[in-house]
Amino acid sequence: MKVVIVGGGAGGISTASNIREINKKIEIMVLTRDDKVAYSPCAIPYVLSGTISSFDDIIMRTPEDYKNKDIDVIIGAEVTAVDSDNKTVTYDKDNEKIVIDYDKLVFATGGNPFRPPMDGLDLEGVFQIRNIADGVKVQEYAKNIESALVTGAGLIGIEIAFALKELGLKVTLTEMMPQVVPRSLDKDMSDIIVRYLEMEGIDVILGHPITKLIGENKVEKACFGNDDAVDAEMVILATGVRPELELAKMAGCDVGRWAIIVNDKMETSVEDIYAVGDCVESTDLILGSNTISHLGTTAVRQSKTLARTITGKKSKFNPVLNSMVSKVGKLEFGAVGFTSSFAQQNNIRPVVQKVEALTRARYYPNAKPMDIKVICDSEGVIIGCQIIAEERVAERIDTMTLAITEELTCFELSNMEFAYAPPVSMVTDPLVLAVEEVSKKFN
């Protein structure tokens, strides 16, 4: 059997590795247009900030490493055509057009950065960060400027803005929505992040989209709708990604509202063609409807399911909750499930409680404030949680992910056992405090 994988990101490379772990005989080929594989794009902002010393440090493996595992990774390969009837893939490599056949084909094509419609995008100094090569360009350009603007205040936008601030630049972060991280946080929680960023010297402008960039040959200013402008010798477009679907459509795969439709075995509508990662739609655990999950953790989990599917073993990919966590400077923030506003948009009447607690016993040195928001449905079932603190956010988000997956109510979670020691928690864990408080809102 010959498996061809298009895409060398988390989904594609993990699929190849997991297939090889299960089966030593299957022929595996990975085609990627990039010149690097097996690295995390999520680490790029931390290299820019200097927290991680080099881009080389975030590259886990090379094509040669995979060759030693009998996985053929072809870098610099641009796939241009797929013929699902004849089971062939065409790619360009070094100006040569090459046609190969396959028994099983995997699309792990990810997404392309979205370029918002505005004048000035072709000026020098305007960047999008998709891979290490983009990160290197930004790093070099930042050495000769004093001001930068990041537009798009999702996770990557915030992390890049902070990284550029750490390089000594005057940084402005803009977002067309009235809050940062709108998909994962409610506004009252996102306001905590905004206050932190402003305290760190980053200017945050919300609710005003950038309309144009101006400059002679290089970008000099970014303008808003009312012709207000801010200095920006460099502009980073962190405006999200759109799934790359051209090849999947060429192959005849069904595409939904956002991306490729797959079942819980990661099979597309076309026989012997599969898909994983940013280019597919997943099932939302709470609503049961399709959604997108542009997270590396999702892609890796999908790759494990797909590897078992291709090798003839039983497995299925479970619905998603899009649990996330991030860190900028000293501040950690995380979320899982629904925000209260998203619940309302989907005709769920949320019952919400926000509490302030501490990360350690109050008498223990360096206890940090922790803000927790819990969202339940009208029956008390937990459907969302948001946490912001300077430490120990990730493990509590993971706990709430499990609670939501198991459809626990706030009453049930408030009566469960949690570990305690003064250096790591209060005697009543902050999560318990939060669900106890929201429980009081029910009869």
From TrEMBL:
Cofactor(s) required, per the database record: FAD
InterPro entries named among the record's database cross-references: FAD-bd_OxRdtase (IPR050260), FAD/NAD-bd_sf (IPR036188), FAD/NAD-binding_dom (IPR023753), FAD/NAD-linked_Rdtase_dimer_sf (IPR016156), Pyr_nucl-diS_OxRdtase_dimer (IPR004099)
Domain Pyridine nucleotide-disulphide oxidoreductase dimerisation: 329-426
Species: Methanobrevibacter oralis
Span of domain FAD/NAD(P)-binding: 1-286
Keyword annotations from UniProtKB, A to Z: FAD, Flavoprotein
Pfam family, one: Pyr_redox_2
Family indicated by similarity: Belongs to the class-III pyridine nucleotide-disulfide oxidoreductase family.
Molecular function GO labels: oxidoreductase activity
Protein name as it appears in the record: Assimilatory nitrate reductase electron transfer subunit
